[in-house]
Amino acid sequence: AFEVLVIGGGPAGSAAAIYAARKGISTGIAAERFGGQVADTMGIENLISVPYTEGPKLVAAMEQHVNEYEVDIMNMQRAEKLIPAAQTGGLHEVKLANGGSLKARTVILSTGARWRQMGVPGEEEYRNKGVAYCPHCDGPLFKGKRVAVIGGGNSGVEAAIDLAGIVGHVTLIEFGEQMRADEVLQKKLRSLNNVKIITSGQTTEVVGKDGKVSGLNYTDRTTGEAHHVELEGVFVQIGLVPNTEWLKGDIELSQHGEIIVNDRNETSIPGVFAAGDATTVPYKQIVISMGEGSKAALSAFDFLIRNSAE
Ligand code: FAD
Question: Residue 128 contacts by C-beta under 8 Å, 6 or more apart in sequence?
Fold first, then answer.
């Protein structure tokens, strides 16, 4: 059995494994795909002290760093079920899709999240070629250009406000008759002079030219009329879905499916910690996930020394 078993090999899981291994305790990391969302990212410009890197390069660096320590890396392993220890300090069990199971005195859950996609033609084709999901990450790449934000919930309206300060023009498209964001955000958005708000709009296609986004088609759901908007970027803000379906019923999740953690990364189960995009911690970013993973490992270590084996 491991002393620390990390589930998920993104920035949070990598940081957790390194911090745990540096305490000299037996550490394993099981991940469906080492690297996580970073593996799907092009340019990264906000990892402090690294002005520019690219996803695959950062994944290789994370893996190399983890390999500096005695960490048992189990890649391409999907966790399917968590069976918590019968008593505090006992062994937790994690069942894998391959039929195997792993046991550990502490578990750190860092299975990350995925952006909900619109599922329209062009979205996948122009991903990272104008279709973006993270305004904090990619906003500056559209300086002075025209973009759309899809979604009028809090994240969409926050993204539109944020982008309006960087880009030339923002078109916000909300599917419903009204935006769903907090009124204070809507009011702020309406006060900006380079933002157009479209409600009852259903995006039907992302169109491109020369391998880049050149526009977007949407249907006015009240009149049925089709419209085209010329632009260079589309930010999809219709939800970030945590990869926690497999934990439902075994651990406390928020209404959005995020693992509820406190400021020490403790979950509702003693000895089980969580970090990164899969949790309730606000602002889903690489640097934040790395910090959270480190915190979770330190909390796991603290738990181990307080609940030492008989
Ligand atoms: P993830 O990176 O999502 O990693 C989750 C890990 O868990 C993966 O290894 C996955 O395979 C594994 N996993 C999932 N389910 C299971 C399971 N059941 N069993 C076993 N393993 C499982 N952030 C920035 O700071 N800067 C950027 O420029 C930036 N750009 C981005 C661009 C894109 C296209 C995307 C999608 C995200 C971007 N982000 C960026 C956000 C950033 O990637 C995430 O905040 C960060 O990766 C979260 O780290 P994490 O370790 O919590 O989760």
Answer: 41, 42
